[in-house]
Specification:
By secondary structure, the protein is of the alpha+beta class. It folds into 4 domains: 73 residues, no CATH class; 224 residues, no CATH class; 307 residues, no CATH class; 213 residues, no CATH class. Helix content is 53%, strand content 14%. The chain has 28 helices and 23 strands. The strands form 3 sheets. Strands 1, 2, 3, 4, 5, 6, 7, 8, 9, 10 and 11 form an 11-stranded mixed β-sheet that branches. Strands 14, 15, 16, 17, 18, 19, 20 and 21 form an 8-stranded mixed β-sheet that branches. Strands 13-22-12-23 form a 4-stranded antiparallel β-sheet. Helix 7 crosses helix 10, helix 12 runs antiparallel to helix 17 and helix 14 packs antiparallel against helix 24. It is globular and about 130 Å long. About 1% of the residues have low confidence.
Amino acid sequence: MLSRIWSELRYRFRALVRHADIDRELRDELAFHLAREAEKHRRGGASSEEATRRAALAFGGVDRIAEETRDARGVTLLQHVMQDLLYAVRGLRTHPVFAGGVIATLALGVGVNTAMFGILDRTLFRAPAGMIDPGSVNRVYVASSGPNGKRAIEMQLEYPRIADLARWSRTTDATASFAYRGMAVGDGRDTRELVVAIVSASYFSFFRVAPVLGRFFDASEDQPPSGTAVAIISNGYWRARFGGSANAIGARILVGQRSYTIIGVTPAGFEGVSEQRHPSVFVPVTAHASTVDSSFYRTYHWSGLEMLVRRKPGISVTALDADLSAALTRSWNAQRAIEPGQTSVDAARPEVIAGPVQLARGPLAGPEARVAMLVGSVALIVLLVACANVANLLLARTLRRRRELAVRRALGGTRARLIQQMLSETSLLTALGTVVGLMSAELTAGMLRRTVTRFTDDASVLTDMRTLVFALTIMVVTTLLAGVVPALSAGSDDLADSLKAGAREGTYRHSRARVALLLLQTTLSTTLLVGAGLFIRSLRQVRAVPLGYDVTPIAYIEASSRGPHATARQVLDLESRLVAGAVAIPGVERATPVISVPFWSTERAPIFVPGVDSADRLGRFLIQAASPDYFATVGTRIVRGRGLTSADRAGARPVAVVSEAMATTLWHSDDPIGKCFRIGSDTMPCTTVVGVAENVRARVASLGGGMDLIYYLPIEQYVASNGPPPMLALFARVHGRADDYAERLRARLQPLMPAPVYLTVRPFHDIVDPTMQSWAAGAKMFVLFGVLALALAAVGLYAVIAFAVAQRTQEIGVRIALGARARDVLALIVGHGIRVTLAGLATGVLIALAAGRAIAPLLFHVSPRDPLVYGIVAATLMVVGVAASLIPAMRASRVDANLALRAE
């Protein structure tokens, strides 16, 4: 059986690649049988001519038998396709400009969509590499109501909370906790800030993965109060730091402020559930947490961990939510037993939301995910425009080959055969365009990824199987979209008319299809340009929002402490040395220590105000503690009273400067100067307001809404009351851009730090700018794709008008001969282009207006029906339409009437 199948396959393969030899053997065999049959008739007494005639009749036609035999091989279709492809290659070699234009257009559409698919796949659809049954795994979110009654969702949980949920759940098979932190890794000159994965021992059980060297840590090494100081390093870090040597196992590595023993190496490509930050080191949760808060496992103060759960078989997400919410209620009451000030269950109404593993699909997904989806849709529109453009070019080429196609039909070619040939040619062009598109996607994917999602990952397009399958699918779809209309037009004309007609005759019927394709391009281009205009306006609006401080000239300096916790006095002395060292650098104007960083890390504490019932219900009151130079350093103005001074030291009367929004919220129209409020509890000493600062925005939520409520404390008083700040950080104001001073500041200040402390310096705008990422990404991508689509539409309009002019040369010659002036011809041709542009513009505007409601939530203080945007887009399209029509119109106005009339 198998030998017969193998023999059949070998024969068919030989018939495909050596069909000439097979045909010759077939002719020889038929000639042999025909001669035998004729010889039999000659022996019966027939003459040679009669014997040959009878033999031919008996066979029923040698040509028919040969054709049936060829069909029986089952490779005729493939042979036809190969013939068509070879014919297409020869045809395209004679028209390289046409072939290059089509391939470039298709490469543009395919490349953009392939790159965007890679982004969307990684952010929205693809499960973490190596995860076991990702459909049964969920990320845990907790929703609750705060003191002001507002509902909030959190995914950063406390260690005891996660332990409670794991202990009291009945629907989970496994749970794990994890967090990702940028931490100092290594010692001495080898110290680098790397991403460290802080994970529970159960974390690795969620993945089908085994270490390439050593082992993973187990539950006995991840127990409170201090865990075991063991670490697992990533494959990349192992090769970069240890050269891939087995000696890495057992080596010591300094991570943060603790030394760990390396016990394993992860396989290449393992990243866990990290979507943007690739960890270099994995350490146990308890080993890390004990260095931050010794009571992390007893109290519900230290948070920052995320939780994964795996559902038991047959358990739905709804059932998991209900089960974990019941466990959360028990945990909430357990917290109230040790923290009576915790909001009651009835007031907080805590519940668990089990979301997808992918953050971009969860309840806390930011606008970036929605913008990424929108940009993916825009990329598809660019592909449609490219397909319409290519269809127009192919249709024009088909019309020019009208006589050739008619001759082929007259010689016996069927219309189906002609359609097959045209589709084969389109397939060749699309395949070449896809190859070029994949190469361009490889080059541009990283840029698009960082623009749309802030990803730093530069995964290769050419090695990702899912992306390649998508590109192949796009290639097939593109072949159909771009090739069907031109292919169906092949041989559709009357054969006699086509054989005796010139190339120009009968064109107008076909040009209606070309105009329809052009209308599609103009319509889609209008929609994209409107989107670009709306996002540009949004970006300008959000950048025009007054933040209340400067951004460009500010550098942010943070110290990663790696030694024992310093005392309050040691912290203050170190900050003073750092400030002095910073301002000693030429170009650095001022510097100040801070405890909060807008849009990055903010501090808060409950406040109590005489005469105000539950001040915390009025909003979130944020703390900034700094030196007297703070306001001059960041550029925040004092609008009433005074700022902080050197007299506001520890032991002096507690004072504060409050923002205008905080003053208005607490004391309305009363003068806030001299007012009292207490920080932390109502038994604390009174903090007196000595000044009012201009409003600032420190959180993403305040960009589109009200101002943040913030108060400023002298850092010496803050440290005296609260101990060392949660992080050692400074702001430095430079002359010019902070980017130019980052390395200079780090090199100057690092030697001033104690040995176990590692400094990082970054421009402040690197922290602020990502808060505007969604609008910036929308503006950049819509502009890019809109301009590309507009350029394709302009080329399409030019091609349609130029082709129409070429086809109407005789008509134009007659008009000129009858007295038409050059401006009449110009008006005729340009008028046609303007009508097409207006029709596409009107349709595109209607579509944009209808789609405006969908993108309205992604805009910033801009109406999706902004008349300014629509007016600019309309003017742009009209200018492009007139420009694209003018060149062929000017050529038409210079037609020589005598030559035009003789040409036919």
